[in-house]
Amino acid sequence: MKIHNWGIIGLGKIARKFADDLRLLPNARLHAVASTSLERAQAFAAEYDAPHAFGRYDDLVHCPDLDIVYVATPHVLHCENTLLCLENNTPVLCEKPFAMNIGEARRMVAAARQNRVFLMEALWTRFIPAVNHAFELVEKGEIGEVHTVKADFGYCMPFDPNSRVFNKALGGGSLLDIGIYPALLALFMFGKPAEEDILAAATFTQTDVDESCAFTFQYPGKRLALGHSTIAANTPVEAWLHGREGTIRLHPRWHHTDRLTVSKYEGRTEVKRDLRIPYGGWGYAFEAAHVMQCLENEMLESDKVPLGFTLNLVETLDAIREKVGLIY
User: Fold this and answer.
1) How far, in Å, CA of 107 to CA of 227, rounded?
2) In what side-by-side order are the strands of the sheet with 92-95?
3) Res 269 pLDDT > 90
4) Radius of gyration for the chain, computed over Cα atoms and rounded to the nearest angstrom
5) Distance between CA atoms of residues 272 and 263, nearest Å
6) Which of 40, 92, 168, 219 could bridge 35 with an S-S bond, Cβ 3.0-4.6 Å?
7) Tens of pLDDT along 301-325?
8) Rounded average pLDDT over 272-284
9) CA nearest neighbour of 78 among 135, 35, 121, 22
């Protein structure tokens, strides 16, 4: 069994959860970590038994025996950090949102293809067992043709101009942080919407980032996708896939749920069944396992989250931002 040596750039909360979940995988080892603070990197490395710690991102990519880097820095640094790795022939799993705009995203994809190095956006939701099972049920026709997708994601965040969430310079706001989840669900179900078929509205904080954002995508064949994100309220954080013959409900928090309810229509009544699909850890181990399988198969991109999908998602987020007037 090949052991894959992981590196992590950016050592915040999500990096800690990812490092926790690497411990669940027998073929994964945290090999190196990097922060802008050497002291922080050394403390993180000691906690997770990583043999290498660096106080500069540039140093990490030259670490011997490094197989793959997880980029977990703030949104605005994803392009710069990913390019650093790709230009040093190091495969990358880049945290979402992949980039701040389509221009950055295209540069990243072009670098991966030019250097023939693996690159994937860390859309962990795609690999959560219950979410994946919902997609499989749709593909099998369990609820008939899906005509409506609805999803929300909101949490109440007291205003703090010093927080990353409210910091425009760091790509703050609800859309790129959590609105990306309803958007990616729509694209997984129906594909990229035409720009003229996107409707969107937003409210803004004192720091000019979106506090709440709502959007609707209209598709041919009487299909709709509705999404909502907010940092001003605790919303249910659930998703619904409505088909001609039934509905699949992804229970809270839907983007890493372990529970589905499948309803079948019988006239005007519904027959429901609950499905429980539990898992261990935070849920990041599944995407990590997929990445390692891709590397073992010498793939340059994922077949579950291909780079074309990521480019479509970034373009869609750009279109929403343009319609609501959110400019970084």
Assistant:
1) 28
2) 52-54, 28-34, 4-9, 68-71, 92-95, 119-122
3) no
4) 20
5) 4
6) 40
7) 999 999 999 999 999 999 999 999 9
8) 97
9) 121
HSE at residue 122, side-chain half, CA atoms within 13 A, is 27
**pLDDT tens digit sequence for 169-188:** 999 999 999 999 999 999 99
The torsion defined by the Cα of 65, 96, 240 and 212, in degrees rounded to 10, comes to: 160
Which structure tokens are listed for 70?
Answer: 């997880």
Domains of the chain by residue range: 4-122, 126-282
Peptide bond before 253: cis, by omega within 30 degrees of 0?
yes
Find tokens 């499905």 and name the residue: 275
pTM of the model: 0.97
CATH of 4-122, one of 3.30.420.10, 1.10.600.10, 1.10.10.60, 3.40.50.720: 3.40.50.720
